[in-house]
Amino acid sequence: MASIVSDETVAAWLMRHPDFLLRHADVLAKLNVPHGSGGATSLIERQVAVLREQLAHERGRLNHLVARAHDYEALLARLHELTLRLILAPDLLHACNALEQALREHFSADAVAVKLFPIDANERAADPLVRSFVDFIDRDRCLCGPFAAEQAADLFGELPLEIHSAALIPIRAHEQTGVLAIGSADPKRFAPDMGTDLLERLGAVAGAKLASLAHFERVR
User: What's the chain's Rg over C-alpha atoms?
Assistant: First the structure.
């Protein structure tokens, strides 16, 4: 059971350590030290109160930035690990499996799909998936946001849950194009205004590896 320290004990301790508040400015900033001005709040007290509010706001902002930096660092580590898995993949099947497993495990994906569009113009024109995503094929940037049920079915097939938002990452390497799709049941997981730098790095790495494997399998 914690003992109660008396005012006299605290005062005596501070008298023996007069530099304590100088060495601990954070404690001083939290103390309420009124000035003898009757019932009115002195200008100094008001200034101190404002500075404390500003300090609390900046501390909250700094904590938020630090948390975001840690999250970004963790994502970079996951992207690095996925890149190594892709480098070691001997064929398209293993590469696609590595992508799906990593995105499900480390990127909280509820659904993952990797689709490479046909190279041949006639095959491309006859491909229903190409027709569904004709506006996406020539994009250089990711597309994130709400996802229509029919598009989800085209990409992900039959799933035990509904996909409400998705990130569509373009695959573009040499003549090969395609889409890497990450789906979520959460409507807010992928928003149109979210940052896509890491997703586009992932698309560049995955696109280069998948295009190389696809070319090798065509000419083999």
Answer: 29
Distance between CA atoms of residues 113 and 210, nearest Å: 13
Query: What letter does residue 116 receive in the DSSP assignment?
Result: E
How is residue 82 written in tokens?
């996925």
- The strand order across the sheet containing 165-173 reads 111-116, 176-184, 165-173, 143-146
φ/ψ of 171, rounded to 5, equals: -105, 115
Contact 206, 99 (CB under 8 A): yes
CA-CA distance, 148 to 144, in Å (whole number)?
12
pTM > 0.70: no
Structure tokens at 188: 């807010």
* CA dist., res. 202 & res. 35, Å (int): 60
What is d(CA 112, CA 196) in angstroms, rounded to the nearest whole number? 17
For residue 109, give the DSSP letter.
Answer: -
pLDDT at 194: 84
Q: What is the pLDDT, as a whole number, of residue 157?
A: 81
- Considering only CA atoms, which of 212, 33, 8, 210 is closest in space to residue 113? 210
Give CA–CA dist 108/189, Å, rounded. 9
Exposed/middle/buried for residue 181 (C-beta within 10 Å: 0-12, 13-18, 19+): buried
Q: Rounded to an integer, what distance in angstroms lies between the CA atom of residue 140 and that of residue 200?
A: 9
Q: How many residues does the chain have?
A: 220
Q: Is pLDDT at 156 greater than 80 in this prediction? A: yes
